[in-house]
Design a protein that fits this description.
Order of helices and strands: HHHHHHHHHHH
Number of helices: 11
Helix content: over 70%
Largest sheet: none
Radius of gyration: 22 Å
Distance between the termini: 40 Å
Number of strands: 0
Shape: globular
Number of domains: 1
């Protein structure tokens, strides 16, 4: 048998070597490793709380349709805001253009503001068609919320930017092996944000954590408008205060991580 014939035959050794390579790649990136069990766990927790809520509040089912549809649309606003922020940053890393950007006089905070602007554009492009389609398809208009809708939208946009700042900081620190956090981290807050059910459905020990999130106050405020016809100013100001606090902290963390990455030359050495 010629050497060419030997190399053309299926080789378990080569296959095993590749599997071993991918295994070491998985072990070397903790976000990838966590992701394997992450999605089934989040889905189980989220739908477990939804099922528990419907089981203990059967009378609420009658008016659930509009509230759930509004929750889905507002949740997508939060998700698109975070994803638009993070993916715009990732596109610079995928094209290995981040180092070239900062050869120019561009400042890190200017990059953050640009990412926020792009996030808003992406979010509007993403959610407006869905909001408009809900009118002829389901005879439900989220615009009937009136002015409170603007407050919900703005607060969720800022919350998305905060999560986005955390994501890009972790990516700068851990490399592209952490890019899956752009999709993972936002879903971590979903079960405790009271998107589809009130916060009081959560276990007692988890409720203070939920109330520490601005998203919980937004979705509780949404239900107050849709079910009780009342705009709760206390929930609005709680969400604003928490968003401002977390935005300041998130920006400070990003600027610190960026400064460390630039000093260590990581902006030009982007990899797994």
């Amino acid at each position: 048998m010629t050497p060419r014939q030997r190399t053309s035959i299926l080789s378990l050794r080569r296959i095993g070597a590749l599997i071993l390579r991918y295994w070491y790649l998985l072990l070397g990136s903790w976000p990838r490793f966590v992701e394997l069990a992450y999605w089934p766990t989040v889905q189980m927790i989220l739908w477990g709380f939804i099922s528990q809520f419907f089981y203990t509040h059967s009378s609420w089912v009658v008016q659930a349709f509009g509230v759930l549809l509004a929750a889905v649309l507002l949740w997508d606003t939060l998700f698109r805001a975070e994803l638009g922020f993070s993916v715009s940053f990732l596109e610079e890393m995928w094209s290995r253009n981040l180092g070239q950007l900062f050869v120019t006089p561009l400042r890190p905070y200017e990059l953050v503001l640009a990412l926020m602007g792009m996030s808003m554009i992406r979010t509007l492009i993403g959610v407006l068609p869905a909001m408009l389609l809900a009118i002829p398809l389901y005879h439900f208009s989220i615009f009937e919320l009136g002015l409170p809708l603007i407050t919900f939208f703005v607060n969720l946009m800022v919350s998305g930017w905060v999560v986005g700042l955390i994501v890009i900081s972790l990516i700068l620190r851990n490399g592209l092996g952490a890019e899956s956090l752009a999709w993972l981290l936002i879903f971590a807050v979903a079960p405790i944000s009271g998107i589809y059910y009130p916060v009081d459905v959560l276990p007692g020990w988890l409720q203070p954590i939920a109330w520490a999130l601005p998203t919980s106050h937004v979705f509780e405020g949404m239900r107050a408008v849709l079910i009780d016809g009342v705009f709760r100013a206390d929930l609005f100001w709680n969400a604003v205060g928490l968003n401002v606090l977390y935005l300041v902290i998130g920006t400070a963390v990003f600027l610190y991580v960026f400064r460390v990455a630039r000093r260590r030359g990581l902006l030009l050495q982007i990899g797994e």
